[in-house]
Amino acid sequence: MPDHKYEELKRLLREMGSVMVAFSGGVDSTLLLKTAIDELQDRAIAITIRAPFHSRAELSEARQMAEEIGARQIVYDARQLDLGAIANNPPERCYICKQSIFSICRSIAVENGFSWLADGSNSDDLDDYRPGRRALEELGVRSPLLEAGMTKADIRELSRRLGLRTWNKPAMTCLLTRFPHGVRITEERLTMVENCEEFLRKNGFAQFRVRVHEDTARIELEDADLVRFMDEKLRAAVCAFFHTEGFRRVTLDLEGYRCGSMNQPG
User: What pTM does this model have?
Assistant: First the structure.
């Protein structure tokens, strides 16, 4: 990784003076928070959102990572936040959600005396359909990794060099991305997906998604895991668990894991 990008990231953070980092515990926000703490010490802090569409495991990992980094952390409970506009999972769902939540985060940052609110967007995020970026730009949220020109590969390599255990962590997204646009979302359905994905994780799968099509679960796996999934006992166990959670049919997507597959038409 070109070291000049890392130096630029550090320069940007020093220039910002103080920052509140929107922190999920993922690859990107962990590197951003770690660098912010290194450069700004107590003038950097993490804020983590607790919401029904974020898995419990993700929240737990975010808390653990903040502690490991030595960062102060605010956990904002958004479970009671009125986000009725995203209940039907519209195409602009991410924009609506980020407008609401990041507006609150920005207010918390101001109340606590932090000059900037920052997120972990990187250069690769510009290549996907991400309506939430418009909300961040409108709210004046900074994206230092993106501003420094860092790609996901850069971030993983730098994280490895810095000894961050998130360097090879699978990509995580909110649970709403498991459903087609226009489908009514309920906490019960979100819990179904969360429980099924946790079952796959406990059975040794790392990068995957459980996509929902009415009462059918469509499992996306990396190519390396497709053969292992064909083990009769494992496949039977997965199907049995998914049925228990409420799915009538369980399918395997032969195209494998694809980031943003629910954004594709058809």
Answer: 0.89
